[in-house]
């Protein structure tokens, strides 16, 4: 084996320029594969993290996933019902105290109840449609993502009681209102109430910053004439991946629709899977192109070293020794290219991590490219490179093993 290794090194060194070009081709493929994987994986992780942080892991509402069975369905084997309009149940979640107590008994995380109603926010003859959310400030802080997103005021200002409201800075700009101003909230049933702005938040999500207003739970209940009612329970879990299990159990027990964050963003998560497939397909294509360079080098060496092959086989080397020799040369080029590619990939990833840019939407925030530092990316790129190198070296090695030394020597003479 040592002799075969020495012969492989001699063959590779004999064509130094072509070997260097092949190694550079593999290194570039590995380096850019690592950088691409780090950038795309980092973007995906950052996007999923934002999904997890900006929405409840499980959301229980006063809706039902399937409509209740009608009396006709109980009497007849076959019944077709159309134009059915259920009565509006303004009670929200029935017996919320018992539901919250049961959930607190086993849910591994934090939960908060709220009453969400549609309405209009009015200030100085300007109207903005909004979702008015009544919350309990004490427990909402453990669930709501806006607690740390305030530009002016704070979420704690809501604890002072009274008719206070928290709105997004985009909504405030559309209304022309500011901190300390008094706005009027009009509910969907026509009731109105004045509220003082005690906080302006900015989450970066336009739908929230210009369409949500937070008030005390009791104020939302009064505004919508739904005393002691809630229509939503939001849960933040210690382990976000456990959301489907928790949602299934809660829905089975309470009977209300419980949606995990994975279900709410199913289409987006499927798109991320497709993107990953595309990414690794591109990586494989890059490695395949690099493999053609290795194939060219090994094929040339096989052709030029035909006389050496004949001599080696005449000295007693067998076919599998010839295959091993040229396969080893291909793997050696792939290994050297992978090592150089790791260095190039690290430098590219480091350079991408230093890039800073200004968000066009706000004109104020600075951010960096989301980068995932993972040794797995280096291993996968090297595995692709070595696999393509092995395949590129095998075909010439197979041909070299089948050469007849007598025919080679006769042709050479």
UniProtKB/TrEMBL annotation:
Keywords of this entry: Cell membrane, Membrane, Transmembrane, Transmembrane helix
Subcellular location: Cell membrane
GO biological process: lipoprotein localization to outer membrane
Domain spans labelled ABC3 transporter permease C-terminal: 281-405
Transmembrane segments: 20-40, 277-298, 325-351, 371-395
One cellular component (GO) term of this entry: plasma membrane protein complex
Domain MacB-like periplasmic core per the UniProt entry, residue ranges: 19-252
Pfam families linked to this entry: FtsX, MacB_PCD
Family statement: Belongs to the ABC-4 integral membrane protein family. LolC/E subfamily.
Protein name: ABC transporter permease
């Amino acid at each position: 084996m040592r002799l075969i290794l020495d012969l492989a090194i001699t063959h590779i060194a004999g064509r130094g320029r072509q070997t260097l070009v092949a190694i550079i081709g593999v290194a570039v493929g590995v380096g850019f594969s690592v950088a691409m994987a780090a950038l795309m994986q980092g973007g995906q992780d950052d996007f999923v993290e934002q999904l997890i942080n900006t929405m409840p892991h499980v959301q229980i509402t006063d809706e039902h996933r399937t409509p209740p069975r009608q009396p006709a369905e109980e009497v007849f084997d076959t019944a077709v019902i159309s134009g059915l309009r259920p009565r509006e149940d303004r009670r929200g979640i029935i017996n919320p105290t018992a539901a919250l107590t049961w959930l607190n008994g086993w849910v591994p995380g934090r939960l908060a109840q709220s009453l969400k109603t549609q309405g209009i926010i009015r200030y100085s003859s300007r109207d903005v449609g909004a979702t008015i959310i009544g919350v309990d400030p004490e427990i909402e802080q453990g669930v709501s993502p806006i607690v740390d997103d305030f530009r002016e005021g704070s979420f704690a200002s809501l604890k002072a009681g009274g008719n206070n409201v928290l709105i997004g800075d985009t909504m405030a700009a559309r209304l022309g209102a500011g901190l300390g101003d008094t706005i009027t909230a009009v509910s969907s049933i026509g009731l109105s109430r004045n509220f003082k702005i005690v906080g302006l938040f900015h989450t970066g999500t336009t739908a929230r910053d210009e369409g949500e207003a937070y008030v005390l739970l009791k104020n939302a209940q009064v505004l919508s004439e739904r005393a002691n009612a809630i229509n939503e329970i939001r849960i933040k879990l210690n382990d976000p991946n456990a959301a489907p299990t928790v949602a299934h159990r809660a829905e089975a027990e309470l009977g209300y629709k419980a949606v995990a964050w994975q279900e709410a963003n199913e289409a987006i998560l499927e798109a991320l899977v497709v993107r990953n497939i595309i990414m690794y397909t591109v990586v494989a294509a890059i490695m395949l192109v690099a493999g053609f360079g290795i194939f060219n080098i090994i094929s040339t060496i096989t052709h030029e070293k035909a006389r050496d092959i004949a001599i080696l086989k005449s000295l007693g080397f067998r076919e599998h020794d010839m295959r091993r020799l040229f396969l080893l040369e291909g793997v050696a080029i792939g290994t050297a290219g992978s090592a150089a590619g790791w260095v190039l990939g690290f430098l590219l990833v480091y350079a991408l991590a230093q890039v800073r840019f200004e968000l066009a939407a706000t004109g104020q925030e600075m951010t960096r490219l989301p980068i995932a530092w993972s040794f797995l990316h280096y291993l996968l790129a090297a595995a692709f490179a070595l696999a393509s190198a092995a395949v590129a070296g095998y075909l010439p090695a197979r041909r070299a093993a089948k050469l007849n030394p007598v025919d080679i020597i006769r042709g050479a003479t």
